[in-house]
Every structure is written in structure tokens, then in C-alpha cells.
Amino acid sequence: MNRRQLLVGFAALSTSAKLIPAIAAPRLPSQISPLSRPDGMDEQSWQWLKKAQALTPALHHHLQPMTGSVTMKANADGRYGYKVQKDLTPQQVAQTVLQSGDSIILDFGNHYTGYLSFDLGWQGKSADAPARLHLTFGEIPDDVAEPLYPYNGWISPSWLPDEVVNVDFLPTQFRVPRRHAFRFVKIEVIATSNNFGILLKQASVDGVSSAGPDSLKPQQYPSAEWERLDAVSMRTLSECMQTTFEDGPRRDQRLWLGDLYLQAMTNHVSFRHHDLVKRCLYLFAALRDPRGYVSACVYEKPVPRIGEAFLLDYALLFGVTLHDYVFTNRDYALLVELFPVAEQQLQLALRQVDSAGLFHLPADIKYFIDWKKELDKTAAMHGVVMFSLSRMSRMARALNQPEKSERWETLRATMADAARQHFWDENQEYFVSGADKQISWASQAWLGLAGIVPAAKAKNALMRVMKEPGAIGPTTPYLYHYMVDALVHNDGVTEAKQLILDYWGEMLNLGADTFWECFNPREPGISPYGGKQINSYCHAWSCTPGYFIRTNFKPTL
Amino acid sequence: MNRRQLLVGFAALSTSAKLIPAIAAPRLPSQISPLSRPDGMDEQSWQWLKKAQALTPALHHHLQPMTGSVTMKANADGRYGYKVQKDLTPQQVAQTVLQSGDSIILDFGNHYTGYLSFDLGWQGKSADAPARLHLTFGEIPDDVAEPLYPYNGWISPSWLPDEVVNVDFLPTQFRVPRRHAFRFVKIEVIATSNNFGILLKQASVDGVSSAGPDSLKPQQYPSAEWERLDAVSMRTLSECMQTTFEDGPRRDQRLWLGDLYLQAMTNHVSFRHHDLVKRCLYLFAALRDPRGYVSACVYEKPVPRIGEAFLLDYALLFGVTLHDYVFTNRDYALLVELFPVAEQQLQLALRQVDSAGLFHLPADIKYFIDWKKELDKTAAMHGVVMFSLSRMSRMARALNQPEKSERWETLRATMADAARQHFWDENQEYFVSGADKQISWASQAWLGLAGIVPAAKAKNALMRVMKEPGAIGPTTPYLYHYMVDALVHNDGVTEAKQLILDYWGEMLNLGADTFWECFNPREPGISPYGGKQINSYCHAWSCTPGYFIRTNFKPTL
């Protein structure tokens, strides 16, 4: 499907949602970090870095008052999670005196990324001492229903979403200076004096996002569940849209290429904040390593800096994201500028493709695909390279470089042949990977996207693998996205819809306001970090149900 | 001694220190809190409150870099306290990578009241997570050499001098937004990630004080110890001089009348920030209770508010402080304004004096004198009333109200007779108090100040009581001050000097940079609050050695 078809897809879904240009966010010079040219940066990269900074968006603010207090009740029958039960109204909260040892959970009704503030009053004989409060910010009920500590995960506890704050003089307005991502806030009074208790009034969150209005919201949905799936997708995306596309506003707050690809895709059919995509592409392009490779992530603050991780599949998605941006926005100037960067990433990958067109896992380069340790990623990576080649070839054509384009098309065909020979097991009717002929969701997804075997066979493999007891399953919505996309590509729209209902729909059943970084319906509460309290529950790579809904499940490219 | 003599006393001590007018601090309107008239406040009080706010001083800033890091070594031989040992230079500190679990104690070389800031750098693979730090602010080595927790005191732990701070993006400049009082800062790294450690550079304290220059510093001292006693007194006072006279900058940060009296007295011979005294008198006058009584303390922030404590001896010190201010500054306009307030306090006290001139402890009114629970305070309170009467009488004379003046002089004589009969035990040659004829330091001090018995007898009682095993001793430098003053009043200058050397000198021996809220040489480490980590170690009422030094031990009044 080309972009014209995609736009037709939009129009069919949302007849009255006009394709208005995205509202330009006002530029606030104060939000653009002062830059100086990093040591050893070449002139071209420095120009791109300055362009990226000039595209720093202003943030939209939404002041959301608390909706009241809640209590969390563990679900009955051993079902995972908690039920949110309304407790006090905001008026009742404001009249509730909290003494040392007391606690309360405030609810803001939806997920917000921003700054908590409240008026801190007091009642009693005298506010003769500071108030010391422990604040815990919850994206999901678990965060505030269960204690954050002890934390036994293996990534830094400095990311845990809590703060101890001290307020010296009451009454006062208090604003938590750090940005947090939350729907719930548990406030525990560590100490006041015996002479007074605190009163929480006017609690609100100053929510920030660069998303702006959602100009392409469909007028109607097949059902309330689909409407909710779309709404939660969009909330997930818009919460991750800050001065870059963040992977999740709670923890890393970092721009990752794998997430960016999916965010940009969904942004194209919703907020249409194309400048933010452009900014992110410039950031990756400007901050390559000395060999010219783009990193898997970049740090934005305090000043842009290259991330230390390199992932080959993510690097290839640079070109894919550029492709989508260029053809959606007809911004051929950016194509001219950044194509060489995309090509450089492809060249790195092609070093791993032998003369027979078979991809070999590099020993010295990392790749992601999914978190599953046991997963053999050879077949999936083969698919990623083919995914990249098709986009690269189209860009080369647009740049009037037919030799390149043809060379890559030819290579893609060779790789397809190689894949059919090496990865397709005609007996089992599965794509297999590695010496042990491992069967996995990832291999079916990525080679299913490559058009190597007839659609019926590919769809069949995708459907069967999800029930195959010995198959290596997925851990992330990131891989689920490619499963859905592969189904769509292989005449499996109905099945793709069902997969979204089964997977993302189950997060809705568990009360999600935004979609999660990590979810396994069979193991809810699992964490890739050894501690679910450090998981991100508003995670960019989880937002693509909205993309499929709004494109009416038309296949990508 | 009248004020002229006092001024001669200054001149004799510091021949070159010119009696220049205090340098007027610039008024910063932004520092004056916005006021609105409190509900029910009468017009007169409102005018005084506005005058008080208009006198809010600007603060002087002093940027003090750290002097390096230190380690604390427990004193040998079971001696109390710690020895401060230099460890790293600031340059070495800046090169020391601190990982999760590491800690360091920074030294700023003296006591500062202000705002800690530092540049937080990082070293390692990548600063890919926030840094979470636990900061503990120490006025004395114990604060940082021993853990703050568990804290078992009975006043609020919200006053404990520690903070948990989170810094999201490194490198950055970080400023602790709350004011702290400290010489030492222990920085414990709760967590970074495994990929980096922090670097502490440019640590400094932005010290604040309204004191300004000490224009009356003596040119020479009898010995280095006396010079140090004076310097530490002045540091104690200047650290407590903020937008009011605070009792101590660490904990309450509150304006107390008992402290104010001693602060104003010492300020007169040093910083001469007379407007600050005036501001504080206006605050007490404006914020009386409905009966017209001044409270023992007022709260300054967020807006001025009456304290909940009333102490009769403190209330009487309002007039004493007014007296000193008026005659030092020849500000008779303020006398006219505030004399009625002082008189009102005296009237309350005189309700407790019977026709024979004997003071009876009220059942419904509190009084302080000292913290000692067992202390019978009747005799001492009798002395406080007489102390007040002499100043009130002089002010009445200056206001041309001779009847009042004479009436109070007569009453004072009657009270002297009553005291001789009821409190003086000629057999024991002690002032005694209460039905059990209790012997205490407080009774000897306050009635020793009243000139009831010949100086030789009073001095003798003062000297003997300090060695009397059964006598009720003092717990606070506040009472020690009156012991010194009483010795000075009774021809005991040599003995007064020795007492200062024995008491305040012992704090110096223990390494004090400022004098403490509470100190008992026989029980170092004692706390009136059940936990020494909540004690204040820079406390206004401890600053008067500097007063006696600079007045050459001339008796007050």
C-alpha cells in the first residue's frame, strides 16, 4: 500500500475529520537547550544537531484536577490486579486531616505526564514544624497498592517513581519540580508535628505533551471496545510525545529508534506532529558513532548525546522511519540530507549477508527483535534486512539512483530465495531459525512480512505458532505489533483484529489507561527487569492498535 | 550602668572600630511577603504588622566553596565527640567517582545557613538513569558521623536535617531548594545505575544572613581563647539573623522573645542591625492574643502568625527588649508606640504579686526560666518581675509618666523586701524557692540580679551553688547567661569570666563553630527532646559571651 492508499484509508474511516495541517506549536526559545558543538563533531552532524534543536517543540499544558481519592481492592478469585474503588470527593479530600502515618491515594482519572501540585493546608493547634511526605506515583493500581520496596530488580532503583518532599512553611502551594508519569499518587505523611495534620487541597497535575489535537479521530468505531483501544493507543502515544518521542514517560524518557518507528507511524494518522519526527531523525543522524552508525537510542537532556547501545535491527529502522516520513510529508529535501545515513546502516547489515543472500548473525553487533533470551534471532533479522531493503530501494528510486534501487531489489529477491531455502520448513510449514530449527513467533512475524511464501501459508504459520506449545513466544507489544502487521500482510485482517482484542484488549480488561511496556497474558506482572514496580506502563511501542484502526487494517508499505 | 557608659565600654575596647551607623541593607520588595489583614485584627495591630513587613531586611549572600572532604574519628579515651580529620582536597573530591552505596562528608570550614549547591558530573559508560542522593546536614560532627535514624525524640522528625534528592539528567548544576544550617554535608549515593558514578564538583554553600559587617569587633583580646569565644558568639548570632532573629537556623527558625532579648543585646555591640530588632518588636506587638498578651514566639512564614505558646517571663522581656532598643537608639517614637504593649504584659504579671509584694506562681499561665522539670520557679519569676519593673519604670520616666514610674519603683522595693523575707535563707545564705526551700542556680541568678542582698552575699551564693551537690542546676545556655550577668552585677567579673571559660569554653574544646541550644559539660550529648540529632547547635540564646567581652563585663542596666 502506498501513502495515497493510506490517506484514502483515513478518509474512509473519518469522513468529517479534515486533513488539516497539524497546528504549529509555538516555539519557545527558552525551551531550546543552549548548545555548543561537541568535541570532534563534524560540520554536517553539527548542522543537523542545530536543526534538531531548532525543531524542539513547545509543550501543551493541560491542568487536570484530581477526581478524588480511591482505594485499591485486590481482584477476587486470584485474578491479577486491583479494582479502583472511588473513596472521597475532592471536597471531602480537602477536609480530611492527615496526621503522621496516614496515607491517601489521589486519582486523576487518566494517565498524565507532568507536574503534581497541591495546596498544602493544615489543621490543629499549630503548624509548627515542616511536613515530610512520601509521594509514590502510580501508572497502574499495583504501583500504589503494593509497596515499592524492597526492590530487587537489576536496573537502577533511582528510576523508582517516588519522592520524599519536605515543606517548611504551611499553608503553601507546592509543586513537585520533577516530571512524573501517573494516574494515581499515594501520599504518605512521614511526619508533621503532634500539633497539626495536613490538608490536601486543589491537587492537580500540570500535564504536558507536544502532541496537540488529534485531528484524525474516527467518527465511529465498530464497538465500544475498539473505541477504547483507539483512545488508549492515542493516550499512550501522546503521553510519550514530549520534546522528543520518548519510549515511556515514566522511566527512561528516552528516544529509541524501535519505538520511534512505531510512534511516527501512529502519529501520521493522529497528531500529525511531523516536525517532531523530523527532529528525532536529525538527532539520530547527528549523533552517530565514529563509524557513522546510528545508536539504538539518544539522550536528549541536558544536551543531546549518543546512547551507548547499538542494535542492528533498530539501526535499519532509521531508514524505514525516514522512508515513512519522506513519503508522508513529501519532504524530499530531508531525503536528500539523510539518505546517506540510512544507507550506511544498510551497508553494515549487508556485511552479514553472504553471496547466497543468507543473513548471518554478527558476533560483534547486537540486535533486539524481542527480549526473549532463548530466541534464535537469525530468521527474524533476515526479515528485518529485507524489510529495510524494500524501503531503501524505494528511496533510491525517488532520488533517481536506479542502479542502487535495482541492486537492492535484486538482493531482496535473492534473500527471499535464501529464506525459502534456509528458514522455511515445508514439512512443518513454519519458518525455523538456527541450527536447532527453532520455531518462534518472531521468525513467523518477520519472515511473514517479507512475502516469501504464499499469504495463506504465512498466515497459517502465524496462527498456528500462537498455539504451538514448544514455540518461543513474545514478551513485548513491540513483537506483537509485527505479528499483527504480518497477519495484515497475509490476508489475515480478521485474525489481526482478534489478536489485538486478545492482547491489547486484555490490558484494557486489567484497567489500562495506557498500554504497557511489557505484557504477557499468561504471566501478568512479569518484568523484564526483575521487578514489576520498575516497568513502564505507558510505553510507545504499545500504541499501534490505533494505527491499524485508523488505517482500516491496510498493510504497511 | 546606663547606655552612655555602655557606649564608653565599647569605645574602650575597640578604639579604632568606629561607631559607624549600621549599613542599611537594600530593601528588596520581592522579599516582603504579600500581606492581607488577618481576620479580626484591630487597626493598630495591622499598622504595626505592615511596619514590621516594611522592615523585612534583604539578606547578604556569601558564597563559600567546600574546603574538602573529611572523616570523623571518635575521640579517644571515651571523651565525648569526634575529631574532624581532613581527607580530600576539593580537587581530589572532584575526581572521586561515587557509586551506589558510597558516601562522602564535605566540609565548608565554618557554620553556614543557606543553600547547598554543586555541579553533579558523572563518569563511566553512560549516565543513563537519575542519581538519587541522601543528604545529611551537620552542624557538628555527630550529625554526620552517627546515623540520624532511628530517631526516638518526642518532637517532630520532620525537623531532622536530611533530604533525599533525585537528579534526572547529568551533568547539571544542582541547588538544594531548602535552606539548611550546616558546616558538614554527608552525601550518600542511594543509587545511580551500574553504568556510571557521580562526580561532585564546585560544591558550595550560598550562605545567607541579614547581619552585615561586624562594626565593633575588638582590636585585641586577652587571649586566643577569648578571641575565639567572641568569634563563635558572633557567628552564632549572625547565623541566627535572617529576616527575623531566629532562635536557631536549623530547626524552629522561629522568633522567640527570650532569645530576642539576648540577640538584640549582642547585636547592639556588633552588627548594629537595629531595624531588625524593631521589626521583631513590631511583630510581637502586632500579633498579641485577644487579651493583649504577647506570645513567646511568632511564626514569620508564610505570613506572620502568633505562636501558640505564652510564657510569662518571656512576655516581660518584651518591655526589657523595648527598653534596650529605645535607649540605645534614642528612638522615642517607638517607645510611645509600644510602651502600652509592654505595660500590658507587666499588668498580667502584677496580678500574681500580692499586697506584701510576693510573687505567686500562676496556675493558668506558663513560664520558662529553664528546662529543668524539678525546678521550682517561684523565686526566679519573682526576680524576672523585678527585672522588668526597673526597665518599665525607666521607660515611664522617659515618657513623662512619673506616677507610674514611682509606683513601679516603690513596688520593686516592696518586692525586694518580700524576697529578702521569703526567698533569702540567712542560715544557708542561699535564695530558696517553694515549700521545700529548693536551692537552684536559677533562683540565685534571678534574685542575684535584683540587688536584694549585698553583692558579696549574692556572689557567694552564686559561686557556692555551682558546686552544691543537691542544687538544681541549669540545662541551657539561656540560664547560664543570667548566671554570668548576676555575677557581673555582684562584683564577680573574674568569676563571670571563669564561668564563660568553663562553660562556653568547653563547647569550644569540643569543636564548636557556633554555640549550642543545650549543653551540660557533665552530660554531653543530652537532649531536651530525647534525641540529640534534633538539637540545634547554633542557637541564639548562646551568643552572649560576645556581649560581655565587648562591654568589658560591665553590668547591664
UniProtKB/TrEMBL annotation, chains A, B:
Gene3D superfamilies per the UniProt record, alphabetical: 1.50.10.10
Organism domain of life: Bacteria
Pfam families: Bac_rhamnosid6H, Glyco_hydro_78_N
All residue ranges annotated as the Alpha-L-rhamnosidase six-hairpin glycosidase domain in the record: 227-550
Domain Glycosyl hydrolase family 78 alpha-rhamnosidase N-terminal per the UniProt entry, residue ranges: 70-205
UniProt record, GO biological process: carbohydrate metabolic process
InterPro entries xrefs: 6-hairpin_glycosidase_sf (IPR008928), 6hp_glycosidase-like_sf (IPR012341), Bac_rhamnosid6H (IPR035396), Glyco_hydro_78_N (IPR049164)
Signal sequence segment: none
PANTHER family in the record: ALPHA-L-RHAMNOSIDASE C-TERMINAL DOMAIN-CONTAINING PROTEIN, C, PUTATIVE (AFU_ORTHOLOGUE AFUA_3G02880)-RELATED
Protein name from the UniProt record: Alpha-L-rhamnosidase
Organism, as annotated: Izhakiella capsodis
